[in-house]
Amino acid sequence: MHKIGKKGGVHPFEGKKLSEDKPIVKLEPKGELVYPLSQHIGAPARPLVKKGDQVLVGQIIGEASGFISANVLSSVSGTVKAVEKRRVVNGTMTDCIVVENDGSYTTVEGFGNERDYSAMSREEIVDAVKQAGIVGLGGAGFPTHVKLMPKEPDKIEYVIANGAECEPYLTSDYRLMLEEAEKIVGGLKVMLALFPNAKGVIGIEDNKTEAIKKLSEIVKNETKIEVCPLKTKYPQGGERSLIYAVTGRKINSSMLPADAGCIVDNVDTIASIYMAVCKSTPLIRKIITITGEAVADPKNFEVRLGTNYQELIEAAGGFAVEPEKVISGGTMMGQAQFDLNVPVAKTSSAFTCLTKDEVAAQEPTACIRCGRCVQACPSRIVPQKMYRAAIKNDLEQFEKLNGMECMECGSCSFICPARLQLTQAFKETRKAVMASRRKKA
Hints:
Layout: E1 3-4, E2 10-11, E3 24-27, E4 33-36, E5 46-47, E6 54-55, E7 60-63, E8 72-73, E9 78-87, E10 93-101, H1 122-131, H2 144-147, E11 158-162, H3 172-179, H4 181-194, E12 199-205, H5 209-218, E13 225-230, H6 239-247, E14 262-266, H7 267-279, E15 285-291, E16 299-304, H8 309-315, E17 325-328, E18 335-336, E19 350-354, H9 358-361, H10 372-376, H11 383-391, H12 395-400, H13 411-415, H14 422-440
Parallel strand pairs: 3-16, 11-12, 11-14, 12-13, 15-19
Antiparallel strand pairs: 1-2, 4-10, 5-7, 6-9, 7-8, 9-10, 15-16, 17-18, 17-19
Helix pairs in contact: 3-5, 4-7, 11-14
């Protein structure tokens, strides 16, 4: 029987042993690179290049087109083949820039230059992050430079590095914490320079003992940074759950973390801040886990953004057996794939290739009102009532039931013995509510 965590959350099969001991392997692309112009929350980037243009590593090829937007940079040097629609991991056809890699990896001027962040102004640091195209790399994709500009920076008391990585099967953040811990600490120092009244906290689930040990050793003489071991349960890495676990402060869907005096970023995002500010190296790479029982040799790869996922699967030995289901991400919040010919984007984390599809194996039945979904919900809302409102398209009732507080973590669907597609229903209903609100506004 599936386990429910205390005060919400669940304990799904972790699946991390397949790749947690596999060091990160750098993998260079073979074919063309595809850069979606929308790899972030907010307005898509505006293309700055056209077919036939020559581009360099670190060149901005897509420019942020609004306040909530982010630059897109080339990870290779070569020739622009097209600016056209290509399929991405969410299944949609999206405007993309396609670059033919020339294999020389010629960089823009100044790429990799050392910089002293302590000699930079707040505005210069934030601008360096913006120019680098950094977004939330844990999956949310919120433009990081915007997050670093709260209305009242002096009221920020905590800068939290999210190293929980509670999503099943994923091990990219774990390997990053083991292999590049200094970059995480360096990025945290850069962020703390923006918030003079804050302390840094690195939150790591207590099943990652080696990562806790490694980072604790590095920060032992730091007066403003500490490591906070967290209980292992899903979704401990959710922003609201993490803030509560670290600070005891609660936020809801109408609040930002900054309203609770917190700034939260994924450890890879923070390492990328360090690279952008201190090493003049923009976001052009991603660490990806290729895993699952169907994969011949599960691995963690460092790849250039725009690389085709099929190349990663080949580098992991291909499929040992034909997968029943392939998920972009982990088994709780990931998206099932019907096409593997898609590019690695900023918000990519993994391809999880499973030999059986437990969801498809069981047909949904009627709700038996067992209440397990209520126990599992980390937001302390009532999924069974929300589901009835959702399937009736009763948006008003859904809101009255605090449906907008849903984190879409999937805990309710995971624990439901009737196999009801609760989370999917809530995702669609939340979208409908937000669309209704925009229409009224």
